Amino acid sequence: NNGRRSMKYGTTLVFHNHLTAILTAAAKLGGDEATLREYAHGVDAKGTSSVPEFSLGLRSIDDDVEAAAETAPLSLDASTWFDHVGGYGLYGFGSHLKYPSYYAFFAGERERLGAEACLREYFPRLCRGVGGDFFHAIIEVGYYFESDCASPSTLDSGLAWLASAYVEWPDRTGPANFDSPLDALAAAHNAKGLPTFDLDDGSSGYIHAMET
User: Fold this and answer.
1) How would you list the strands of the sheet with 15-16, edge to edge?
2) 24 with 36: CB under 8 angstroms?
3) Contact yes or no for 137/90 (Cβ under 8 A)
4) What angle, rounded to 10 degrees, do the helices at 152-165 and 115-126 form?
5) What values do phi and psi take at 204, rounded to 5?
6) What is the arithmetic mean of pLDDT over 132-140?
7) Shortest CA distance to 122 belongs to which of 96, 161, 94?
8) Are the CB atoms for 35 and 26 separated by under 8 Å?
9) Cβ atoms 141, 155 nearer than 8 A
10) What is the radius of gyration, based on Cα positions, of the chain?
11) How many whole angstroms separate alpha carbon 179 and alpha carbon 187?
């Protein structure tokens, strides 16, 4: 259950939890349950450290619960849940603090309504904010469908991530079509309200922006 892990990764909480992607890919490629557990926990059945150093560095959601307690956990219900979405900008730095409360809320709503009804009830209001955390939240929702809807907790975590990192993209001006990916990145680089990237260093520009 990746939902019981933090949505953030690394000592500075700059990176994102991609474990769902790893497990989905491994399953699609024919990995058995033992392989998936090994990837999820970073050790094989004998306790030997294995491939995923990534898995060993993942935070528990309980770490975020503890951190969020300093700012008071959210009290969410069907009438107030949208009042607390986002608030962390496109970087999403700090959005992990709201994630535990939203994860508990959406898990409860999914159990109450059923998965499809829960998605239909809440996703329409979240879809305008899918840019938060650079689309990682909506990708997490996508893995619920990629798993043939067999992992309800992935839906819970995807909706919770969307709500926690919710942010609407600034209005776009200028051309919608570009001659190359580099031109598109250059336009994003210069757009007011969007992160500044170093086009030569790739994601290191994002990391620098997050840390400063």
Assistant:
1) 15-16, 5-9, 58-60
2) no
3) no
4) 20
5) -60, -30
6) 82
7) 161
8) yes
9) yes
10) 18
11) 12
212 — pLDDT class (breaks 50, 70, 90): very low
Name the packing angle between helices 152-165 and 136-146 (round to 10°): 170
Whether pLDDT at 178 is above 50: yes
Taking residue 166's Cβ as centre, other Cβ atoms within 10 Å add up to: 26
Average pLDDT over residues 41-52: 50
Which amino acid is located at 206 in the chain? Answer: Y
Which tokens in the block code for residue 75?
A: 């009290």
Contact 95, 133 (CB under 8 A): yes
Alpha carbons 53 and 49: distance in angstroms, whole number: 8
Identify the pLDDT of residue 112. 97
Retrieve residue 55's tokens. 């898995």
Residue pair 17/143 in contact by the 8 Å Cβ criterion: no
